[in-house]
Amino acid sequence: MRLSKTARTFLAIGIFLVLAIVLLMAYFREGEEQSGLSLELDATQLLLSKQSAKLSTEEFSNQQQELESRLTRAESQISTAKTKLRQSIESSEVTDTLFEVAETSAVEIIEISSAGVTSESLEEISLSVFALTVKVEGEVPNLIDFFFELSQQFPTGVSESIEINAEEQLATFILRIHTYEGD
Q1: Which of 2, 22, 85, 124 gives 180 a disulfide partner, CB atoms 3.0 to 4.6 angstroms apart?
Q2: What is 91-180's CATH number, 3.90.198.10, 3.30.450.20, 2.60.40.1120, 3.30.70.60?
Q3: What three-state secondary structure class fits 178?
């Protein structure tokens, strides 16, 4: 069967229109789908940003609690250190302790001298410092025991120098005892 030229033209136009309509429908569906996906993407991004902000807030809250805990521990340690540093440094008490430790350690104190109490600042903390120069005589192991026991008796004391003459069984040392002057 042969179609006339007019029928073929109508048939071609009909096929072209059907294809055009199918393509337009696909194009509009794609636009609608893209629009829907765009809305869904916006909603997901909004939800993600809210979730991220919530996580950040929780992280900051946890970090804040951790830092507050560390601050409390540090303040407690400072308070403990201040309490230890608040010892009285009356020269008579220090001298009595020196003679008691010397007797316990079986050494003899030959000479004690002091420049008195001075003030010193350490890391912006005001301290009173009582400096002593002491000469001690005894056997070397007893001298060592004496120094060890002094460090136990004066935990805030610092031995600036210790000179031991083993032949003469003499020791000279400078002891600086620190106390806290603050509140």
Answers
A1: 85
A2: 3.30.70.60
A3: strand
Cβ partners under 8 Å of residue 119, min gap 6: 126, 127, 128, 129, 181
For residue 172, give the amino acid letter.
T
Angular region, 90: left φ>0, alpha ψ -120 to 50, beta rest = beta
For residues 36 and 26, give the distance between their C-alpha atoms in angstroms, rounded to a whole number.
Answer: 15
Given pLDDT bands bounded at 50, 70 and 90, which one contains residue 8?
confident
In which band, very low, low, confident or very high, does the pLDDT at 182 lie, cut at 50, 70 and 90?
low
pLDDT at 95: 80
State the average pLDDT over residues 113-127.
Answer: 77
Q: Is the whole-model pTM more than 0.90?
A: no
**What's the pLDDT tens digit per position in 66-118?**
888 888 888 888 777 666 555 545 566 778 888 898 999 999 999 888 877 77
Of residues 179, 181, 163, the one with CA closest to residue 171: 163
Cross-strand bridge partners of residue 128: 119, 179
What one-character-per-residue DSSP string does 48-112 give?
Answer: HHHHHHHHHHHHHHHHHHHHHHHHHHHHHHHHHHHHHHT----HHHHHHHHHHHHHHHT-EEEEE
Q: Domains of the chain: which residue ranges?
A: 1-85, 91-180
The answer to whether 112 touches 132, Cβ cutoff 8 Å, is yes
